């Protein structure tokens, strides 16, 4: 039997319309779909009725979950199946897609990436915040609030100028705010965007020194993105929201 192949497919930031055409085709063709929590149900409804759909890693610890996913991918692909690993956003932006790909390639399984629209750029846009602008910021930095060792991001990753987009920050917001204030100014504008691109999207705009209060007062839950910088103010002028 010929071994199958694994496609790491980006599902986009939330709204099912924001998957790529190729990503959608892959979902329709797949024998097996192994999907994450942030993937919308509407996308899974596009799969073949006889396809196998597996929700990856319910009720497991992080490393246990990753081992389990790797083994699932390997075993289905070894059976000759076309396997889709469907991930929120883009598979290579804080998605561990590269780790899964390396694991499979090292075991002789073909693996390919179908890029996706990352929440890091699409979620600010859907909230009326351009991450760059000739009027306000010449660059954007995308960071995770927490490193893989559980530590809050080091100050060296935080630029003193330009737009900063922060993922996975809700549960460490106190420490994160303190770290940000080592580099950025207390009165800089900040936006908190919860469930971006989805009908339940909520957006809060304030100043950096109040980031933790904003999150707590509004009971913001993951998934949420924080945007720091002058571009946040442009939301007032972008009246499409
Ligand atoms: N690979 C994904 C990111 C995975 S990390 C991508 O490219 O988008 C998961 C984090 O992404 C969440 O904790 C949150 O910070 C952010 N995120 C993903 N979807 C989001 C959404 N719809 N709204 C707000 N934040 C989102």
Describe this structure in words.
The protein is α/β, with parallel strands linked by helices. The protein has 2 domains: 5-114, 3-Layer(aba) Sandwich (Cobalt-precorrin-4 Transmethylase, domain 1); 119-238, 2-Layer Sandwich (Methyltransferase, Cobalt-precorrin-4 Transmethylase, Domain 2). The protein is 27% helix and 22% strand. The protein has 7 helices and 10 strands. It has helices spanning 21-29, 41-44, 62-78, 97-106, 119-126, 173-181, 211-217; strands at residues 5-10, 32-35, 52-55, 82-87, 110-114, 140-144, 163-167, 189-194, 202-207, 224-228. Strands 3-2-4-1-5 form a 5-stranded parallel sheet, sandwiched between helices. β2 (32-35), α2 (41-44) and β3 form a beta-alpha-beta unit. The longest helix has 17 residues, at 62-78. It is elongated, with a radius of gyration of 19 Å. The protein starts with a strand and ends in a 13-residue tail after the last strand. The structure holds S-adenosyl-L-homocysteine. S-adenosyl-L-homocysteine binds at residues 13-14, 38, 87-90, 93-95, 118-120, 123, 167-168, 193, 195-198, 222-225.
Q: What is the number of beta strands?
A: 10
What's the average pLDDT?
95
| Hetero ligands | S-adenosyl-L-homocysteine
Low-confidence stretches: none
Name the CATH architecture of the largest domain: 2-Layer Sandwich
Structural class computed from helices and strand pairing: alpha/beta
Question: How do the strands line up in the largest sheet?
Answer: 3-2-4-1-5
Number of helices: 7
CATH class of the largest domain: Alpha Beta
Q: What does the main sheet amount to? A: 5 strands, parallel
Q: What is the 3D shape?
A: elongated
CATH superfamily label of the largest domain = Tetrapyrrole methylase, C-terminal domain
Provide the CATH topology of the largest domain.
Methyltransferase, Cobalt-precorrin-4 Transmethylase, Domain 2
Compute the separation of the termini in Å: 53 Å
Q: Oligomeric status of the shown chains? A: single chain
Number of domains: 2
Return the string of H and E elements. EHEHEHEHEHEEHEEHE
